[in-house]
Write a structure and sequence with these properties.
The complex is a heterodimer.
Chain A lengths: L2 E5 L3 E3 L4 E8 L7 E8 L3 E9 L4 E3 L7 E6 L4 E6 L8 E9 L2 E4 L3 E6 L1
Parallel strand pairs in A: 2-11
Antiparallel strand pairs in A: 1-3, 3-8, 4-5, 4-9, 5-6, 7-8, 9-10, 9-11
Chain B lengths: L3 E2 L3 E4 L4 E8 L11 E5 L6 E5 L3 E2 L7 E6 L2 E7 L7 E9 L3 E4 L3 E5 L1
Parallel strand pairs in B: 2-11
Antiparallel strand pairs in B: 1-3, 3-8, 4-5, 4-9, 5-6, 7-8, 9-10, 9-11
Classes of the chains: A mainly beta, B mainly beta.
């Protein structure tokens, strides 16, 4: 059974970089798309972007200038870096596998941006 | 960027029927938007309930169904049970392969 687990700091200072990693277990990292989605009380669910196992990326235009995603197939991990964060980036961040049958979600991790 | 609109909240009686809708600011929702529906219970991650308009995930009860109606994606629940009380989100796929989520519907079974 596929499982995804987010990891990374739960608190990041404003203007710094939020970095998260998602570890995939119970399944292969190829040939799938791997997404990051966040959830805030005010804005609901927001798609951040995805990375294909080959490294091809597609980002939300509203976040594109601040987002970098990467994948390490040997470790079955993919990562998110969100640069120059502000308080509005405080959210629960989910990693997910995207396929034709929808998302399989990780449990999510709360990241708080502090001043 | 497109805006996807859902009812903020709905209430259904136990055993009753309710429909949740998912509307697009860019025009009618079609199968080309690959509508998806997600269920989220408090403290849990969302789960995919419906994909590609009307395909159910294996865990999804038969009382849920998805369709297109009147230019919107629709999630119907027939025979609501207490365990169906949750937040429901839809997503639509737009050009460039970028999905947009709706704001979610809080469904109360009462």
């Amino acid at each position: 059974q596929l499982q995804l687990q987010e990891s990374g700091p739960g608190r990041v200072k404003a203007s710094e970089t939020l970095s998260l990693t998602c570890t995939v277990s119970g399944g292969s990292i190829s040939p799938y798309y791997w997404s990051w989605i966040r959830q805030t009380p005010g804005k609901g669910l927001e798609w951040i972007g995805y990375i294909y196992y080959t490294g091809i990326t597609n980002y939300n235009p509203s976040l594109k200038t601040r987002v970098t995603m990467s994948v390490d197939t040997s470790k079955k991990q993919f990562s998110l870096a969100l640069h120059s964060v502000t308080a509005s980036d405080t959210a629960v961040y989910y990693c997910a596998r995207d396929s034709s049958e929808g998302y399989i979600w990780g449990q999510g991790t709360l990241v708080t941006v502090s001043s | 960027q497109a805006v996807v609109t859902q009812e903020p909240s709905l209430t259904v009686s136990p055993g009753g029927t309710v429909t949740l809708t998912c509307d697009s600011s860019t025009g009618p929702v079609t199968s080309a938007h690959y509508p998806r529906w997600f269920q989220q219970k408090p403290g849990q991650a969302p789960r995919t309930l419906i994909y590609d308009t009307n395909n159910k995930q294996s865990w999804a009860p038969a009382r849920f169904s998805g369709s297109l109606l009147g230019g919107k994606a629709v999630l119907a629940l027939s025979g609501a049970q207490a365990e169906d009380e949750a937040d429901y989100y839809c997503s639509l796929l737009y050009s460039g392969g970028r999905p947009v989520f709706g704001g979610g519907t809080k469904l109360t079974v009462l």
